Protein: Ribonuclease H protein
Amino acid sequence: MNMPSPRVHRPKTFKQDNNSLFYSPKLCLYMLALCITLLLLLQLQSLQQWQTLVFKYRVLASPRNCNTTQDPESISQKLRDSVTFLPLKDLRFANQPLDGHTWFMSSMYDTREEGEVQYQQFPSKSSKGRLLCLKGRDNHDGSWNYYALAWPEALPSNATLMKGLTFVAYNHYNFDNIWHGLSAVMPFVAWHRKNNCETPTRWVLYHWGELRFKMGTWLNTLVEATFGQPSYIEGFRDMEDEGQPVCFEKAVVMRHNEGGMSRERRMEVYDLIGARLGFTVMNETAVIRIFEKECNKVKGCRLMVAYSNNLTVCEQVKLMSLTDILVSPHGAQLTNMFLMDRNSSVMELYPKGWLKLAGVGQYVFHWIASWSGMRHRGDWRDPDGEYCPYSDDDRRCMAFYKNGLIGYNETHFADWARNVLSDVKTKKSEEEASKRGSASCYCS
Structure:
């Protein structure tokens, strides 16, 4: 029997579309959900790590992990140990000792105000509240004396704190010379005047960073009269150890003399010094070393010849208070000119050779005349003098000319006296009604 062959049912085959497989909406949703889940897991893991770090930091920074009983003393000791003393005389600036910050306390900056003295004050905002400390008593080499700044709560070990106000004066020359000494003291008078007439407890004097222990007699008298008390010069002689530091409760340092002061401020300072010394206001006319016949031509003119080395300080003050016209050889005695009335006249006499060889310092009394309100009426430079075996412009000749005798020219002196006396007479008559009042110190 023929059986029919069974039918084989084959499933239908479909041609699969690869594009439709990959872009299935359902698959896209699955993949997006998977990515978001993985991202969240990673973020949670990072957050846990950060929280762990923060927790560790907080634990380390917690006061419970600090030894609070030892911390203040530990900090004070570290501050005490960090105080660094530097040489008062910085030899790096030996070739320019007066430029910039100067070689004295070279790391410090001055306080500068328009028309006022340049100074440093401790403690102050600029010093961040730190005090000035000094160490060393060398009077031959300033590089062996030292300075530093220290906080009041952390002074150097074994340091002595000196109470009151201390004036620290730097003088590139010396304190015995009338002019150089006055130049060093003047800025302190200006500071004193501006700060309610605060007076110093002590002075510390330095020359090239070397300690000095006295002022000249004239300067000492002027300081005493100006500040109303004797000047105490600190020598640190009570210190058992030369290396023992000394710190000051309050200190003012000057190292530029009148640098920065306006002419008006200088005149005010000279007025204050003059008022404290007690000069008279309108001076009687007196002419020094001018021929008497010229003086006799002017009514009221009196001639007086004086030598400052024969006069006491008080006698010098009295003499200058009576002088309207001063004729003098170049020298420290001319510093006294500021004791005269404003607009008084000065004539300066020089030996041979000074114009070429003496340098800019020969004009110092031109400057002080301008600063103190005087009128520098000219120079007499003697064309004759000591013989020098070298050429006229050879600096070795200064050794021959420096202390040379000064001659005079009768015609020149007579003409000068005649012109100045006439001018003074006119000005005095104009100023009779307006006498200069005593300078006062504006204290609160």
User: Anything to note?
Assistant: The radius of gyration is 41 Å. DSSP finds twelve helices and 13 strands in the chain. The chain has a mean pLDDT of 79.
